[in-house]
Write a structure and sequence with these properties.
By secondary structure, the protein is mainly beta. The chain contains four helices and 40 strands. It has a five-stranded mixed β-sheet with strand order 1-34-35-36-37, with no helix packed on it. Strands 2-40-39-38 form a four-stranded antiparallel β-sheet, with no helix packed on it. The chain is globular. The N and C termini lie far apart (46 Å).
């Protein structure tokens, strides 16, 4: 559903504005809200190792074959240039939600990126100088359920005006087509270069239906999903996936994951009247196009609301699913639902990754999907058959009147990125005997039966929490070596169902300053959620609370796990900095130089790890929070390799704000040719 990652920004009508943001660990953790071959040439050649797509290449692998920067010289990386967008949220009603999560793309000789307020910028890739800038002038007075953009998509039309185009969506739900050379709207696309994506849809709340991830492009077809504000109500906006002609902006097809008639392919798994009055099941993350099979792979989120499903009984088929749609027609080819009847906000947030996976020594075209549950699934690409066994296992039943939790859930046989075991009271963690005891009491008071324990009126411990597991940062895939790397959150969360009276009373009491509330209007229960914290504001479970994890797919094992992030900047001056591993938002990339680059963690460092051992080889303090996924490319006559990261901070996570794009490279005199 909507998440800036799971970040899920504050739902409309949630009452949390009285919580001041500061640099304490307590407030930062508590603030956790807690996207047939083409007839059109791509912007880069298919074999290019430069970053022309949000996910690096058309396969979404977040991998570069450039190896100029490698294990032997990465320690010499230095800042090559810095660009400032100038966007710090002035006059923006949702400024506290503002995040800078963009991953730039390189195409047509320029570097393109987008701010959280949808200002699109083109930079010279060698110097970082601004070439042009376009502001779509979204309404800054409007409060948006989320305030971010993860990037733009590029298209090469071949000839004529606007032959090179950028496509992006906005917070006010417009699809824009811009001339990649000048930044001007493409006049022949829609109305003056834009299409209104709210047209024909049920919009419940202004600012709660928006676009935060770059569109998918197949030939002349632009495919777009949506982000939808969570936990407002049962009957929110529907997560319809739509395709448009890249030149004219005419709508070509649409696919609604929610049943709208008895003939809908998921109708048998829903009560139709309920399906018509629910919403979401939307694709807010990044989609991936399979050019070979003519498919678009679409990860979807939960139907609404997140934490009570009594008004949407059944498995809620196509929600929380990986959908393979025929890119030309929108016809469903296959699907795999990875969470049945979601009650935990376990949306599929990560981009599907395409590549060849060895099965009994034979390479098979596959799609890899990571989830917030911490599980990794691998499917054959053309028909969706699991390449590693997936089994339905019994899970806990709901104790809440009116709820019918799914009796089973699909478990992957691959090693999980995050443990699904219950947190035991005896394992409570803290700095002192007193806070350990308080954590022990808190854990004992909650319903706590491990992964898929349903929400409860007395409170339920979620492991993993609703930010993951693996969130929108997704996976890096070194296909040649069968290695899959993810930044993983390991911080348990608590969700409590509330009667309407309890909801009103708790919201007004001021006694829950570190909680998020959602009214879930139309359901008998509202919700409150927060991280599992001690009275000192520290997690009640032992670190790491965030990690970089490498799965060796060929040997079906965890190759290594390294803590990701330190407590620097989040603890009093008199306490030592610890490499505990911190909550994170953003993803890793891998390179042929044997490196993994990742920022994401709360301490604002960009780091380089050895892909074989997990050892940290280099780090650099960023001028603001680096809650984005980096990218890499070559530029200039010397073909110097650059590593670039957006550093603007993350409102809900509470990391330092800024407006920086920072490029790193080896010293020019030492660049090997």
């Amino acid at each position: 559903m909507l998440e800036n990652a799971a970040e899920e920004s504050q739902p409309a009508h949630a009452i949390t504005d009285n919580v001041p943001m500061n640099r304490s660990l307590l407030c930062s953790l508590a603030a956790l809200p807690l996207a047939a071959a083409s007839s059109t040439a791509p912007a880069q050649t298919p074999g290019s190792s430069d970053w022309a797509y949000y996910g690096g290449d058309a396969l979404g692998q977040h991998f570069s074959s450039i190896d100029q920067i490698n294990r032997s010289n990465v320690a010499r990386l230095e800042v090559a240039w810095t660009y400032r967008t100038g966007e710090l949220g002035a006059g923006f009603a949702s400024a506290r939600q503002l995040t800078f999560e963009a991953t730039p793309v390189l195409a047509f000789g320029l570097l393109y990126l987008e701010t959280g307020t949808n200002v699109v910028v083109a930079l010279d890739p060698e110097s970082g100088r601004e070439r042009w800038r376009f502001d779509p002038h979204i309404d800054r007075r409007q409060r948006y359920a989320e305030a971010t953009s993860r990037g733009v998509s590029v298209w090469d039309g071949g000839a004529g005006a606007c032959r090179h185009r950028l496509f992006t969506g906005t917070l006010d739900a417009r699809l824009l087509a811009l001339d990649a050379e000048t930044g001007q709207p493409c006049a022949g696309f829609g109305t003056n270069g834009q299409v209104d994506l709210t047209s024909g849809l049920r919009i419940r709340d202004a600012g709660a239906y928006l676009i935060t991830s770059p569109p998918a492009i197949f030939g002349r077809i632009v495919i777009v999903g949506s982000a939808i504000g969570d936990n407002r109500a049962t009957a929110v906006e529907r997560g319809v996936i739509r395709a448009y002609d890249a030149e004219s902006g005419a709508q070509l097809w649409s696919f609604d994951p929610l049943p709208d008639s008895p003939s809908h392919p998921a109708a048998g798994d829903w009560q139709l009247a309920q399906a018509q009055s629910t919403g979401a099941a939307n694709a807010w993350g990044v989609m991936t196009v399979d050019q070979e099979h003519g498919l678009v792979l679409v990860p979807t989120g939960s139907a609404s609301p997140d934490y009570f499903g009594g008004e949407r009984l059944g498995s809620n088929r196509f929600a929380d699913s990986l959908l393979a749609l025929e890119a030309r027609s929108g016809r469903l080819v296959w699907h795999q639902q990875l969470v049945h009847h979601d009650l935990w906000d376990y949306d599929l947030a990560a981009q599907p990754v395409l590549g060849d996976v060895e099965v009994q020594g034979v390479p098979v075209p596959a799609v890899l999907q990571a989830t917030k549950t911490g599980m990794l699934y691998v499917f054959e690409r053309s028909a969706g058959r699991p390449l590693f066994p997936v089994s339905e296992r019994p899970v806990p039943a709901s104790h809440v009147p009116g709820e019918q939790a799914s009796p089973t859930q699909p478990f992957s046989s691959l090693p999980p990125f995050a443990s699904a075991q219950p947190v035991q009271a005896r394992d409570a963690w803290g700095l002192t005997f007193w806070d350990r005891g308080k954590c022990r009491e808190l854990i004992e008071s909650l319903r706590n039966e491990g992964l898929f324990t349903p929400p409860d009126l007395r409170g339920t411990l979620l492991v993993p929490g609703y930010i993951g597991g693996v969130n929108w940062g997704g996976l890096a895939f070194d296909q040649d070596h069968g290695r899959i790397i993810a930044a993983v959150n390991l911080l348990p969360m608590v969700v409590t169902l509330l009667t309407p009276g309890e909801f009103e009373r708790e919201v007004r009491s001021g006694e829950y300053p570190h909680s998020q509330f959602g009214p879930q209007a139309g359901a008998p229960y509202a919700m409150r959620r927060e991280p599992l914290l001690s009275p000192l504001g520290l997690p009640c479970t032992a670190p790491p609370w965030g990690a970089l994890v490498n799965i060796d797919l060929r040997h079906n094992r965890i190759a290594w796990q390294s803590p990701l992030g330190s407590t620097e900047g989040f603890t009093p001056w008199f306490l030592p900095v610890r490499e505990f591993g911190m909550p994170n938002m953003g993803g890793p990339i891998a390179t042929a130089g044997g490196l993994v680059f990742v920022a994401a963690a709360m301490d604002s460092y960009l780091r380089a790890f050895d892909i074989e051992t997990g050892g940290e080889l280099w780090r650099h303090k960023l001028p603001a929070g680096g809650q984005a996924t980096p990218m890499t490319y070559r530029a200039g006559t010397s073909q110097r390799q650059y590593v670039v990261i957006s550093a603007g901070g993350h409102g809900p996570l509470g990391t330092p704000r800024g407006d920086y794009v920072v490029a790193f490279a080896l010293p020019a005199a030492r660049v090997a040719h």
